[in-house]
Amino acid sequence: MRKEILSNIVLPILVIGILAAVLTTVLSEAYRPLGVYGLYLMIPIAAGLMGYLAALSKPKVKPIRHQAENNAADPVDPTDSLAHHLTDLLRYSVQMLTSQDLIERYHSFNELTERLYCRLTGRSSVSLWCPDSSREMLIECVSGMNQGTGETRVANHTPSQIPLKGECAINALETGKPYIVPDISRYRTENQEPDAWQASVPLVRKYGQPLLAMIEWVGYETLTASQKKELKARFHHAAEISQLFWQQLQAINERQWQMEHDEFSRTLRADVFVERGQEWADQCIRKDDPFSVVVLSIRGFRRLFAGQSQTWNQISGLIGGKLGDILNRSGKAYLLGRMADDVFALIMPRTDTYLASQIMQSGLKTLNEEIGQTRQSDFGDILSIDLAWMAADKRLYQGRLSDMLDRIYRSFFNTDRTIEHRHEFRLTLHESPVEAV
Fold this sequence. Notes:
The chain is α+β, with helices and mostly antiparallel strands and 437 residues long. It is built from twelve helices and twelve strands. It has helices spanning 2-30, 36-57, 67-71, 82-98, 102-121, 167-175, 225-260, 270-287, 301-304, 309-330, 353-371, 401-410; strands at 124-131, 137-142, 161-163, 179-180, 199-203, 211-217, 268-269, 291-298, 335-340, 343-349, 384-393, 422-428. The strands form two sheets. It has a six-stranded antiparallel β-sheet with strand order 3-2-1-6-5-4, with helices on both faces. Helix 1 (2-30) runs parallel beside helix 4. The longest helix is centred in the middle third of the chain and has 36 residues, at 225-260. It is elongated. The chain starts with a helix and ends in a 9-residue tail after the last strand.
């Protein structure tokens, strides 16, 4: 009796107390720069933890064991204890909340979700998938455990891409609600991976396609009808809790995005661009791959926009934002940053200056066409703007990207107009013909 009180009451309370103390300390430090906003970010995770712990405290919500497990005389697994489970919960929660790496945050969310379903519904594997823009294919984002064996996939695992045709995924996307297949035996066929999933949970994002958390239970076919009914109820309860963790992750992602991107152009801030671009450049140097850096300057900006700072920022942001959209559609890997009010920088790996020039010329031509569809009132009485840009490759790179950017930018003020890879382009804001600035 004394041992049961210790294991079922005292120990969980002790672990929960430690969990709360550590989370409070970590979160207060992580969100200190965010001020009061940081406190709001803590609400979903706190609600999720409370719901999670409440679920664990219910006698009915013990993991379902399939028939093979029931017949086996396995010793008690120490990793199945509540204390061990809460320790894992703490580790992945803190990692998801504090990591500066987006991919690591998604991996932590997936681990957190997988442990949630394993604890509440039985041994299972959870992976995150995203439909493509045409919703014809599913692309693997984060993989779970291999067939519920507890062995995580290797780090260099190649993401899968499969047709979006299974009932499990299609139903969740169409309804926007968690879905569990009513009778898996009717849909599962040998060597057809989509049909191996028994449930899916849509994870809606503010921008872009929703993700799908796809769930597969080990030994699902051996469960009785009553066990499957009970499993369905537990699945929906676990889905509600996982949505709270998902809301927390999206709030963190959005806040980090705002801190790293320029408000008007949605491009990277100068310091973020230099930091990430430096990593890209060094990686290309190590692999002996080409890369190109382009600096784009809006000519005559200061004279043109004197006394019109709001219009200055709006048009510069519009140019940078639309250029980023065009580069996105091209499918090329790139980083685009706003270095000053009138200067943007672009780095493209595995691209020489000739190809970079072709991409810029095509992109600016498309930009000129699309910007004409923007409301004329956004430009005031400004009819056209001249852009100048110059591309350079890794031959100009001497170990510091910031130095390379400075050298390219200084070349704009060289009176010799025959400099290689220097180009000019007139952007028409209104249809009326005017002289260049």
